[in-house]
UniProtKB/TrEMBL annotation:
Pfam families: SH2
Keywords, sorted A to Z: SH2 domain
Organism field: Pongo abelii (Sumatran orangutan)
Chain spans, region Disordered: 127-173
Keyword Chloroplast in record: no
Protein name listed in UniProt: HSH2D isoform 5
Domain of life of the native organism: Eukaryota
Length: 173
């Protein structure tokens, strides 16, 4: 459920179907990981006994990975896969066995998996200083209670003000 209490929008079926088509002829436990289009992170798809299963792999702010509902956090996608080749994925208690290769080796898209996670990991490793540290705190000056609006302030008219935008030509011309 979303925060509004509504079910989340389903993934475009094509994405799951592509994964399932790739896994269809593979042995049990074969898996693939793809960039998710529904959340920040990835989707782990694997061939189970009776169907293909799809799990979110969340990319956390510190650059680590986890499958929601599990307590273990992994330092990399490789670490997550290695873990589940030795410990079963819940709730079906099945192990990942071998990666499923893409059908067209000349057109692989593994780069997407690593570019995004590397960028997040670099950002987590080199945090930007907090705004309070980067600039001094503003100082509020005490204004006298006798301050009154001045009717004689120098004001310029709209026509006198200059604009950094070029003037627009009328539509009729």
């Amino acid at each position: 459920m979303t925060e509004a209490g509504k079910p989340p929008l389903p993934l475009p079926p094509r994405l799951d179907w592509d994964a399932e088509n790739l896994l269809e002829s593979q042995p049990l436990g074969s898996f693939l990981i793809r960039v998710s289009h529904s959340h920040v992170g990835y989707t782990l798809s694997y061939k189970a006994q009776s169907s293909c299963c799809h799990f979110m792999v969340k990319l956390l702010d510190d650059g680590t990975f986890m499958i929601p509902g599990e307590k273990v956090v992994h330092t990399s996608l490789d670490a997550l896969v290695t873990f589940h080749q030795q410990k079963p994925i819940e709730p079906r208690r099945e192990l990942l066995t071998q990666p499923c290769r893409q059908k067209d080796p000349a057109n692989v898209d593994y780069e997407d998996l690593f570019l995004y996670s590397n960028a997040v990991a670099e950002e987590a490793a080199c945090p930007v200083s907090a705004p309070e540290e980067a600039s001094p705190k503003p100082v509020l000056r005490h204004q006298s209670k006798e301050r009154k609006p001045s009717a004689e302030m120098n004001r310029i008219t709209t026509k006198e003000a200059t604009s950094s935008c070029p003037q627009k030509a009328p539509l009729g011309e």
